[in-house]
Amino acid sequence: MEFEKFLGIMDVLLGEDGCPWDKEQTHESLRQYMLEECYEAIDAIDCGNMDALRDELGDVLLQVVFHAKLAEKAGDFTIKDVIEGISGKLVSRHTHVFGKDSAENIEDVKKIWEANKEKEREGSAVSNMKSVPKALPALVRASKVIKRSKRELPSAEEMINQIRVMFDNSINNNEEFGNILLTLAALANILDINAEFSLTNAIEAFINTER
User: Fold this and answer.
1) Strand, helix or coil at 67?
2) How far is residue 97's CA from residue 130's CA, in Å, rounded to a whole number?
3) What's the pLDDT tens digit per position in 14-51?
């Protein structure tokens, strides 16, 4: 099995007679590579380059296995634990497939998924919002934090009016502009739009129309 062979290669690299560089790595030192490889995989998707995507997914897999092997050496967890964990999540969140829930359309699936995720969380809304990783791009983090908030959001029209009022009152500092961006992220959630992808696409369009 190729995956078992891959795990064996990593064991050799991290073994006594393995690679000096690999053996010196830590979760912290590998952090930048995890981030870079994920972004490169996303870029391959955006470009529609399947050859590049195949290679980049291999690089992402390397990072996953590398971290799992480091954790195994430290006695924290193994790659088997990682796989069992995600397998359990897939089953527990797809109760319309593996359980008694029923879904007639994509919207039903989204509601069931979010409801099952909510059951997994413990603690207050504030603690759940704080658990959203700070390392995420700001727009992605804003979307996730807003989704975990218990407060009732205004309608899309009300949010647009709020943004108009903010502009009418003039923008004088980072905090005021940040409030506008946060409101836009909340508006994107209501409209079921990925704010991060929308901005990325707008940037590309801006570049491509440059003369």
Assistant:
1) helix
2) 31
3) 999 999 999 999 999 999 999 999 999 999 998 999 99
Rg, Å, the chain Cα set: 22
* Residue-wise burial string across 32-71, b where 16 or more C-beta atoms lie within 10 A, e elsewhere: eebeebeebbeebeeeeeeeebeebeeebebbebbbbbbb
pTM of the model: 0.73
Q: Does the pLDDT of residue 62 top 80, yes or no?
A: yes
pLDDT higher at 122 or 13? 13
Query: Cβ neighbours of residue 164 under 8 Å, at least 6 residues apart?
Result: none
Q: Which residue has the tokens 């109760």?
A: 95
Contact predicate 33/63, CB 8 Å: yes
Q: Where are the alpha helices (DSSP H) in the chain?
A: 2-13, 20-24, 31-47, 50-74, 79-93, 95-98, 106-120, 125-130, 138-148, 156-168, 174-190, 195-208
CA distance 139 to 159: 17
How many Å apart are CA 52 and CA 110, to the nearest integer? 30
Q: Closest Cα to residue 188, out of 165, 166, 159, 161?
A: 159
Quick one: average pLDDT of 90-99? Answer: 94
Question: Please, which residues have CB within 8 angstroms of residue 58's CB and are 6 or more apart in sequence?
Answer: none
